[in-house]
Design goal:
The complex is a heterotrimer.
Chain A (H helix, E strand, L loop, with lengths): L11 H12 L1 H5 L9 H19 L1 H9 L2 E2 L5 E2 L4 H10 L18 H14 L1 H20 L2 H13 L2 E6 L15 E5 L2 E12 L8 E8 L12 E6 L1 E3 L5 E4 L2 E6 L10 E6 L5 E6 L5 H37 L20 H33 L3 H37 L10 H8 L9 H14 L4 H18 L4 H30 L2 H35 L5 H17 L3 H16 L4 H6 L2
Parallel strand pairs in A: 3-6
Antiparallel strand pairs in A: 1-2, 4-5, 5-11, 5-12, 6-7, 7-12, 8-9, 10-11
Helix pairs in contact in A: 1-10, 3-6, 6-7, 6-9, 6-10, 7-8, 7-9, 9-10, 9-11, 9-12, 10-11, 10-16, 10-17, 11-12, 11-13, 11-16, 13-16, 14-15, 14-16, 15-16, 15-17, 15-18, 16-17, 16-18
Chain B lengths: L1 E5 L2 E3 L21 E3 L1 H15 L5 E8 L3 H11 L3 E6 L6 H15 L3 E5 L10 H9 L2 E12 L2 E8 L2 E8 L2 E5 L11 H7 L4 E4 L12 E7 L8 E3 L2 H11 L4
Parallel strand pairs in B: 1-4, 1-6, 4-5, 5-11, 6-10, 7-10
Antiparallel strand pairs in B: 2-3, 7-8, 8-9
Helix pairs in contact in B: 2-5, 3-4
Chain C lengths: L2 E4 L9 H11 L5 E7 L3 H8 L4 E8 L8 H12 L4 E5 L2 H14 L3 E5 L1 E4 L2 E6 L4 E7 L4 E5 L15 E3 L9 E8 L12 E5 L10 H10 L2 E4 L1 H5 L20 E5 L5 H7 L4 E6 L6 H4 L2 E4 L2 H11 L1
Parallel strand pairs in C: 1-2, 1-4, 2-3, 3-10, 4-9, 5-9, 12-13, 12-14, 14-15, 15-16
Antiparallel strand pairs in C: 6-7, 7-8
Helix pairs in contact in C: 3-4, 5-9
The chains are: A alpha+beta, B alpha/beta, C alpha/beta.
């Protein structure tokens, strides 16, 4: 083949295994409304999505990195070569509508299936895949909270992808602290006049579609201060006439595009609203509830960004693996005739690759499990089942976002390390993944914001009930496996039990300490999040290993694939799970030392 | 005009096949399978003929195991109207497939049969020519352009050293080469619709065709590994080696 | 029983591929008859008669055979096949087009693209794009076989076999020739070429690439370059072979003055035969080369041009 781009092969077999055996695709397909998601249909959809990822999106990844997005003299952001036709392919294929309401042009398929498709697209080209991801988030917000009139005008074209969507949250003075939001919206007949400046707006302007639908947080004139006075507005780039055709250009101006460390292909815009009196905007839902609505989108987006951690790690892993097989440097220790001489047989290179493989499988297990729980939480006939699933989603969201993005970044770095000096050379392509991965721990809430959410809303609020409930479930699985005949399962089970024990101590410490001094758990929060992530990853690998061993015992002939599962779990159990003890020690013993130096000491040492 | 498009389920283009240790063949268990890429091109061409109003109905056929239904569904998602699976677990040879197809052609009476020039598993490049022979039809093999009109089809063929255009009386058999077109990606709505399109299953027996292989595969082996490289002392030796040993010039 | 080979030609010249098919047939150990079906193709028959090992040339001269259309040529072959144990052709676009039709008309299986003759009924042929080699045996009364030309040497021109005319048979008149567009001797595209010759920084200038071009034209090869040569401005960007350039896998790749950075190797390592010419004995390119020549390229290239 002539493609110069670094190839990406969607890991369909791994995806299918996790869908079927960890996330419960069959149970999800049995939910009301998901009858179309039969196993053969899932195969067909994943197969075609994989082709698009591999053949259309992946070859554009490097082009996007090199050319970037550029603001033209006409004030329109231009995407890289080939990106327009690629977007068109997604629109023509109906891919944007996969999880949405069939009455508005969607396909009505499960979020779980959408998650698998998004994984491949993010692996293929993360900077590109942000556009469908944000558009889907915007569709969710309008669908859930918009008036029928807004839905009728905007949803069909957003679902088809003819128009894209954005999230306008951040302002120069309002980053993680949205109480500082200043953008204004003044009532003006049937609409509002919106004014203000928004920054870091992903796909805030571009040339992929004829219109862009901005979802903008702004304050009404009489709004109370703080986060309880923020409303959500739809502000289209072009106004829409009653017949659906495009009207006048709205007062939304792309002032500049940011120059970034990574995701160069994704235009990150500074948008100025209402420079000449006010951009026409339409209120979404009720006044002053914008942040609540935005959080619905945000939680969706957080799981998607968590997915980016997995996706970029998978891409980096595939590249590192290919390089390690081809690159020959010296004779590997203990090399025998017939073995490849590639550096893949050097023990430390293998350690890096196994670390990548095991963590990638752990992340996929967590994310697909959470995605299935989202479906159950929305579609299960039984209210109690919906409630249980929602609690699991709420708990897993910050853990997934925090741990998977931090891990994704680490693995992208490990991918560079496997390449040695060549990894530091841009031409090799490994460095791009590391640069692209770097944003994931920052946007949609930094790791610290996730950790804060985990401690305050997910642990302290219910006295640790949900977290301990999950940990007990994991411990039970560990206990079961620690008595298994299979040695790898035994080791995995025992290490899992030990790690859960550490996590429970850390959770207990948080519950006890929060009352004394809220700064102590805050200082420990990211470490606690990592601890929970490490345990959750072990949980998923243990589940996978158990299923694989059972299937082998039942005579499933795919021995090479299945027998790798317990061995991968054991690697994780012996290389990653033991970190739980150290993390617990840091949580319990280390928090006080975080703030121990006075500010003067911190600055005055010189 | 009805168009018949035979498609084959093969080991995916990207899979690096492994020869079985016992030399009985290559490992196909738990390996990704796809539609033969040349057959995808054939399906695409038929769909384009239908879009252009030349073809009225596209019937896709596969001779193979139950799982070949997936391949047929893929073709239906691309735009074929209905499918026929000729179910057999025998590893069929081109002659047997051509005979099965002949029986179906007699039943379906298509005006044109388009198929891939070659399957990427056995690399035979025979079925289309054999089918044309058995039907007594003209053949336009290795097509890079197909224009059907007025009871005739003009086929531009990829031949050694360039292109050649021949005109065939319809009905005829055309085999697709790589440059004929670029197959489309099936859209999500069409993938879902494909499930509801008719798929009929028959057996070779019911068609009166014996698909027992004629050839005996004695063994399958790995190709010779690349010889360790050598240094040659001069240009004369190099050219001699390239001519007599490597036989590449 | 003798063996029948269908000759590939353009009515004026016998294609070299046929000589390779003759030496494959020679391994079967029977008399070889070569069928020349064409129009005004007597010169081809004369050339065919010179091929070593050919016992007899059959010339079917008729307008129906002028363009080697599959339908009339297959009909002709079938009419005479019963006297033969094997019907062979080189696996050219003509052989691949005609022989399966012949096999089906004879109701026999066909064996495509053989790379070795094990015995009169057993052959080796590549499957899965050459990633496996199958040994197949035929029990059919007539073996219909195409021959991969690169696997067999060309039979020498050292013979003078008799030429006999054979009568044309009725043309099924299913197809007609419209036109042909044969490519000029312009160099093939990099990714499609059977042979690629690439130059690196060692070429020292863009002008020096003509040393490669003259050889490429003699061999029908494409010309490529390493990134170093492109970066140095010797040749345009679309010459670049490598991870960020074109990925090629020709039958023969000749790397001249290329050190063999891993980025370059990624673009050509799947080539069947790799030749490296470099004056630096330690250049990494030699690690992947089947044939390495440590030499000054400015001396070696003119010699190579003479020798090929």
């Amino acid at each position: 083949m002539t493609a110069a781009a670094i190839p990406y092969t969607p890991p369909l077999k791994e995806i299918r295994f996790v869908l079927d055996h960890l996330a419960g695709m069959a149970e999800v397909a049995a939910l009301p409304g998901f009858e179309d998601a039969s196993p053969d249909m899932v195969d067909s959809i994943l197969g075609e999505a994989a082709k698009i990822a591999e053949n259309i999106l992946a070859p554009l990844n490097r082009i996007g990195d090199v050319q970037g997005a550029n603001l033209g003299a006409d004030g329109i952001a231009r995407t890289a070569e080939g990106w327009g036709p690629a977007w068109q392919a997604l629109v023509e294929g109906g891919w944007n509508g996969l999880p949405f309401d069939p009455t508005r042009g969607g396909m009505g398929l499960p979020n779980l299936l959408n998650t698998a498709v998004q994984e491949m697209w993010h692996s293929a080209n993360m900077a590109f895949a942000l556009c469908p991801m944000l558009t889907q988030g915007a569709v969710n917000a309008v669908q859930l909270y918009g008036s029928d009139a807004l839905k009728d005008i905007y949803l069909p074209k957003m679902i088809s992808g003819e128009w894209t969507g954005t999230m306008n949250i951040t302002e120069p003075q309002a980053g993680s602290d949205l109480a500082a939001t200043r953008s204004r919206a003044v009532p003006n007949g049937d609409h509002y006049l919106v004014g203000g400046q928004k920054i870091f707006i992903t796909y805030g302007d571009h040339d992929l579609t004829e219109n862009i639908v901005h979802l903008v947080l702004a304050r009404l004139p009489d709004a109370p201060p703080g986060v309880k006075g923020i409303s959500l507005f739809v502000v289209p780039k072009f106004l829409v006439n009653p017949d659906g055709s495009l009207g006048a250009r709205n007062q939304v101006k792309c002032v500049s595009l940011e120059h970034k460390l990574g995701i160069h292909g994704s235009p990150t815009a500074v948008l100025s609203f209402g420079d000449e009196g006010g951009a026409t905007g339409f209120l979404v839902g009720e006044p002053n509830r914008g942040l609540e609505y935005m959080f619905t989108m945000m939680n969706h987006a957080r799981l998607n960004v968590a997915m980016q951690g997995l996706s970029i790690a998978e891409r980096a892993y595939q590249q590192a693996l290919a390089y390690a097989r081809d690159r020959v440097q010296g004779k590997p220790l203990g090399w025998t005739e017939g073995q490849s001489k590639g550096i893949v047989n050097h023990p430390d290179v293998r350690r890096l690759l196994m670390g990548m493989k095991a963590r990638i499988e752990a992340m996929r297990g967590i994310l697909y499990t959470a995605a299935a729980a989202v479906d159950v939480a929305h579609h299960h006939a039984d209210e109690a089942a919906r409630g249980r699933a929602a609690l699991l989603v709420d708990l897993l969201t910050p853990i997934a976002k925090g741990w998977c993005t931090e891990t994704g970044q680490q693995l992208a770095s490990d991918g560079v390390q496997v390449h040695g000096g060549m990894g530091f050379i841009e031409e090799t392509g490994a460095a791009q993944h590391l640069r692209d991965a770097r944003i994931t721990t920052i946007y949609e809430g930094t790791t610290a914001i996730q950790a804060n959410d985990l401690i305050n809303r997910k642990i302290l609020r219910d006295g640790g009930a949900t977290a301990n409930g999950l940990l007990d479930e994991i411990a039970a699985l560990g206990g079961e496996l620690s008595g298994h005949a299979d040695e790898a399962l035994r080791v995995t089970g025992a290490e899992l039990v030990a790690a859960v024990h550490e996590a429970k101590q850390a959770v207990a410490w948080v519950l006890a300490t929060a009352k004394q001094d809220p700064r102590l758990p805050a200082a420990a929060s990211v470490t606690l999040l990592e601890l929970m992530g490490v345990v959750a990853g072990g949980w998923q690998l243990a589940r996978a290993a158990k299923v694989a061993v059972e299937r082998l015992a039942e005579g499933d002939g795919d021995t090479a694939f299945l027998s790798a599962k317990p061995l991968t779990a054991r690697f994780y159990a012996t290389h990653v799970l033991p970190k739980a003890a150290a993390l617990r020690a840091t949580v319990v013993n280390g928090s006080a030392s975080v703030m121990a130096l006075s500010e003067e000491q911190l600055f005055g040492a010189a | 005009m009805k168009v018949l498009v035979p498609v084959k389920r093969v080991v995916d283009y990207n899979v690096k096949v492994r020869v079985k240790a016992d030399g009985s063949g290559v490992e196909t268990a738990n390996v990704k399978m796809s539609m033969n890429p040349f057959d995808e091109i054939a399906v695409e061409e038929a769909v384009r003929l239908k879009e252009a109003g030349t073809a009225t109905e596209i019937v896709v056929v596969s001779v193979g195991p139950t799982q070949a239904q997936e391949t047929l569904r893929t073709a239906l998602a691309m735009g074929a109207d209905r499918a026929i699976l000729v179910q057999t677990d025998v590893t069929t040879e081109p002659l047997a497939v051509a005979k099965v197809l002949k029986a179906l052609v007699e039943k379906e009476a298509p005006g044109l049969v388009i198929l891939g020039k070659q399957a990427i598993d056995d690399d035979c490049n025979q079925t289309g020519q054999m089918l044309a022979a058995l039907l007594g039809w003209g053949q336009g093999t290795f097509a890079s352009k197909v224009v059907a009109a007025d009871g005739k089809v003009a086929v531009t063929r990829e031949i050694d050293g360039g292109l050649e255009t021949v005109e065939l009386k319809l009905p005829a058999v055309v085999t697709a080469d790589l440059r004929l077109n670029e197959p489309r990606y099936a859209s999500l709505p069409n993938i879902m619709k494909a499930k509801k399109k008719p798929l009929e299953t028959v057996t070779p027996d019911a068609l009166g065709v014996d698909v027992t292989p004629r050839l005996k595969t004695l063994k399958v082996t790995e190709p010779a590994k690349r010889q360790a490289g050598i240094k040659v002392p001069d240009v004369a030796t190099l050219v001699d080696k390239l001519k007599s040993e490597a036989r590449v010039i | 029983m003798p063996i029948l080979i269908l000759a590939d030609h353009d009515n004026a010249t016998l294609k070299p591929a046929t000589a390779h098919a003759v030496s494959a047939a020679a391994k079967l150990g029977s008399d070889i008859h070569l069928l020349v079906a064409g129009r005004n193709a007597a010169p081809v028959a004369e050339q065919a008669a010179k091929l070593a090992g050919v016992a007899k040339v059959l010339l079917a001269d008729d307008a129906a055979y002028e363009h080697a259309l599959a339908e009339p040529v297959a009909a002709l072959l079938v009419s005479i096949a019963s006297g033969y144990s094997h019907v062979l052709a080189a696996a050219t676009s003509v052989g691949k087009n005609v022989l399966p039709r012949v096999a089906a008309l004879l109701d026999v299986a066909m064996i495509s693209d053989i790379t070795a003759v094990v015995s009169a009924d057993t052959f080796e042929r590549p499957i899965y794009a050459g990633n496996a080699i199958a040994t197949v045996q035929s029990s059919d009364p007539v073996k219909v076989v195409t021959v991969r030309t690169t696997a067999f040497e060309a039979a020498a021109a050292a013979n003078s076999a008799p030429v006999e005319s054979v009568a044309a048979v009725a043309d099924p008149a299913l197809s007609s020739f419209v036109s042909a567009e044969l490519s000029k001797s312009e160099r093939p595209e990099l990714t499609a070429a059977r042979i690629v010759i690439s130059g690196g920084r060692g070429m020292q200038s863009g002008d020096n690439f003509h040393l490669l071009e003259v050889i490429a034209d003699k061999l029908g090869a494409a010309v490529g370059a390493s990134r170093a040569a492109v970066d140095a401005g010797f040749v345009p960007n679309d010459y670049q072979v490598g991870q960020t350039g074109k990925i090629v896998a020709p039958e023969l790749y000749v790397a001249v003055g290329i050190s063999g950075a891993i980025q370059h190797l990624a673009g050509m390592k799947d080539s069947k035969v790799i030749v490296a010419i470099n004056k630096d004995e330690e250049a990494p390119i030699f690690q992947v080369a089947d044939y390495g020549l440590v030499a000054d390229l400015f001396k070696a290239l003119p010699e190579l041009q003479q020798a090929v």
